[in-house]
């Protein structure tokens, strides 16, 4: 009888260990969940949205190294990416890629230009009428700058309320955690309600 109890306990223990290992593997290499804490990506992503991020699409990152194996593709213009915040590496940020290596970026009176042409900036939202000069701050008039090799230039969709590459520079490719692809839960903390219409919404 005692032997049977030990055997049952061992089976449960092994099942738990396997589940934990699988969960850690999935979180490290496949998919990770993130919560949106600020309004810098509104209206694409709202405060309280819970999203899933594809971690293998840009390659499998070997933990504690800069090695990136089997990338399916590189981040491109329009991708919404999660990355390590360059100024505080314990934090993750989420922004939209607007330029990749070799591209020249410029903003003139809140209009985005890539390689000399005005970009079809369909996701951008500007909610303030005031326009700051480049001397006052870099929000509305910026550049031109050319994105170095192995870097990205990212912006928040809520352009007037986003701390992004205009202020702290480029994102190294090795710091990109993955591509956001779906909202799996959304909670409005002010209204204390679920945003049912946002659940299952694909992120573009």
What features would you describe in this structure?
This protein is an alpha+beta fold. The chain has one domain (2-198): Umud Fragment, subunit A. It has two helices and 14 strands, in the order H-E-E-E-E-E-E-E-E-E-E-E-H-E-E-E. The protein has helices at 2-30, 165-168; strands spanning 31-35, 49-54, 60-61, 68-69, 80-84, 92-100, 104-108, 111-114, 117-118, 142-146, 151-155, 171-172, 176-188, 193-194. The strands form three sheets. Strands 1, 2, 5, 6, 11, 12, 13 and 14 form an eight-stranded antiparallel β-sheet that branches. Strands 9-8-7-10 form a four-stranded antiparallel β-sheet, with no helix packed on it. A two-stranded antiparallel sheet has the order 3-4. Strand 3 and strand 4 form a beta hairpin.
Mean pLDDT: 86
How many discrete structural domains? Answer: 1
What amount of the residues lies in strands? 25-35%
Quote the CATH topology.
Answer: Umud Fragment, subunit A
Helical stretch tally? 2
Q: Outline, from the CA principal axes?
A: globular
Q: List SSEs in N-to-C order.
A: HEEEEEEEEEEEHEEE
Structural class: alpha+beta
CATH superfamily: Umud Fragment, subunit A
Number of strands: 14
CATH class: Mainly Beta
Distance between the termini: 58 Å
Question: Segments where pLDDT lies below 50 for 5+ residues?
Answer: none
Radius of gyration over C-alpha positions, nearest whole angstrom: 21 Å
Helix content range: 10-25%
CATH architecture assignment name = Ribbon
Query: How would a textbook summarize the main sheet?
Result: 8 strands, antiparallel
